[in-house]
Structure to design on (138 residues):
């Protein structure tokens, strides 16, 4: 009888451990595509691709044939995003060369927008708004 109790306890612990591991989800990996960006309330035709993979967010931009790529390191994440419907919001606290950067992805009745905020909450704050026209999931 004592062996059966030990076996049940061990089985329960293993089952709970498995549930706990499966409940930890990997960060959502996505690619966002945009053909229109706003900076300082001026809209500009800029092709942008934003890719999230693990703890990195890569922003590739092409404007008048000139391409630039910026890689941000993700420090903190708040996700409330449904990939089935591409609705919700994602907030990322990031850094670029030691400077803080925020990323906010949200959907609403007007569509999906992504905001990249350099030096948030400072006098040097720069806000880039991307109108997202395609969301892909890896």
């Amino acid at each position: 009888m004592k062996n059966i109790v030990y076996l049940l306890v061990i089985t329960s612990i293993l089952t709970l451990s498995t549930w706990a591991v499966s409940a930890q989800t990997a960060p959502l990996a996505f690619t966002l595509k945009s053909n229109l960006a706003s900076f300082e309330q001026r809209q500009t035709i800029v092709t942008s691709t934003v890719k999230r993979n693990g703890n990195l967010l890569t922003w590739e931009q092409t404007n008048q044939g000139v391409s630039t790529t910026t890689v941000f390191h993700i420090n903190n994440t708040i996700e409330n995003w449904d990939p089935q419907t591409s609705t919700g919001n994602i907030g990322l606290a990031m850094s670029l060369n030691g400077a803080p950067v925020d990323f906010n992805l949200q959907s609403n009745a007007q569509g999906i927008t992504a905001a990249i905020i350099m030096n948030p909450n400072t006098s040097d704050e720069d806000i880039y708004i991307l109108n997202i026209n395609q969301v892909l999931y890896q």
In short: Residues 17 and 23 are 10 Å apart (CA to CA). Confidence is low (pLDDT under 50) at residues 5-9, 11-23.
